[in-house]
Amino acid sequence: MKPSLYFTAAILTLAGLTSLTINSKNILPPAPTIKVPEGFSVNIVADTLGPVRHLAVTANGNIYVKQNNVRNRKGLYYLTDNNKDGYFETKAGFGDYPGTGIKVINGYLYSSSNSAVYRYKLNAKNEVIDADKPELIVTGLVDKRADNAKAFVIDDKNDLYVAVGSYSDACRAQGSIVGIPGCPLRDSVGGVWKFKADKAGQTYADGIRFATGVKNSMGIDFNPVTKTIFVTQHGRSLDNKFPQYYTSQQVAQLPAEALYELKQGADAGWPFAYYDNFQNKYVQSPEYGGDGKKSPDVKYLEPLTVIPAHFAPNDLLFYTGKSFPAKYRNGAFMAFHAQSPEMQKGYLVAFVPFKNGKPSGNWEVFADNFSGQATGSTGIQYRPTGLAQGPDGSLYVADDLKGTIFKISYSGK
């Protein structure tokens, strides 16, 4: 049984931030319901943080987390384990904007709201120097409330890539089930835009549309082996508007979600086509003349890994550590935030093995049973939503239901 947590306000010298100290007599116990491969162990290292999204671990082992709801909370928290007992008992909150993306790189903390990207200068201890005066890097990103998370990544050339999801599921004309010819929404949503990571005051118009046809990408990472950008896509919903083409079972199982490697000008097909994981091909969308079988005339970017519908891959991480067994090196972890109702499987962390910069096998379950319930039941306990690698090579997983952070370590041979 978990020990009770009591919150007391305390003023700490933590780069000038006001902090809350979490008083707990004991370290929270391992999470016994999380299933991991032999030789791995799971511990809860932080809890009750609220609706956390992505997270970043600093070189000295402290943690920054991003919040997606700032009601009675802050948008960012800096977590520290002052007594080195394995539990982060202190959190310092700052930032009054919700959002998802967060990175620590090149002496800065980068953080995104649902319409902008900010950065904060860090001191030698990786603490934010001036929490009240972030530098505004990009502003004016489209935010229509639906699928508005702005996940981002920075490459080795200091270029900033921001995923901008589409608030429209299929770019239909208003009040119609027919798609808008050419889908003008693709000019501002449904893709990835490229900016400079070190240039303040950029607007949406300053960005380059790096890739398009990606309906909503929550997972985005830079692969240090290929020097390219990879994303995981949340697919559209087929709903029940086309019963002449799709059964209820097909609606529940389609379309596939996917892992893509992006290069300049890549097009993953949204909204004109989607990937069918049963026919193993792109299928023309019903709004644009498709019938559930017809292939599009245009060739779209092929997925590297096909993910079942509605798994909601919320984060992507290429593992560069050395503490995990060799099979995990340079491979990709994915956090699945939901489940397939038809398959009754989800709420897990998956792994895709890579060799020479390409997947060398299908995705596999790495950490499972975050739901803590019989598969398909209600009362989900945890939903994996963020991934980060620690300086010791451990994998951190954030949950946005209870605001829990798990640390997965390897101690086997």
From TrEMBL:
<dbReference type="Pfam" id="PF22807">
    <property type="entry name" value="TrAA12"/>
</dbReference>
<dbReference type="InterPro" id="IPR011041">
    <property type="entry name" value="Quinoprot_gluc/sorb_DH_b-prop"/>
</dbReference>
<feature type="domain" description="Pyrroloquinoline quinone-dependent pyranose dehydrogenase beta-propeller">
    <location>
        <begin position="35"/>
        <end position="409"/>
    </location>
</feature>
<dbReference type="InterPro" id="IPR011042">
    <property type="entry name" value="6-blade_b-propeller_TolB-like"/>
</dbReference>
<protein>
    <submittedName>
        <fullName>PQQ-dependent sugar dehydrogenase</fullName>
    </submittedName>
</protein>
<dbReference type="InterPro" id="IPR054539">
    <property type="entry name" value="Beta-prop_PDH"/>
</dbReference>
<keyword id="KW-0732">Signal</keyword>
<feature type="signal peptide">
    <location>
        <begin position="1"/>
        <end position="24"/>
    </location>
</feature>
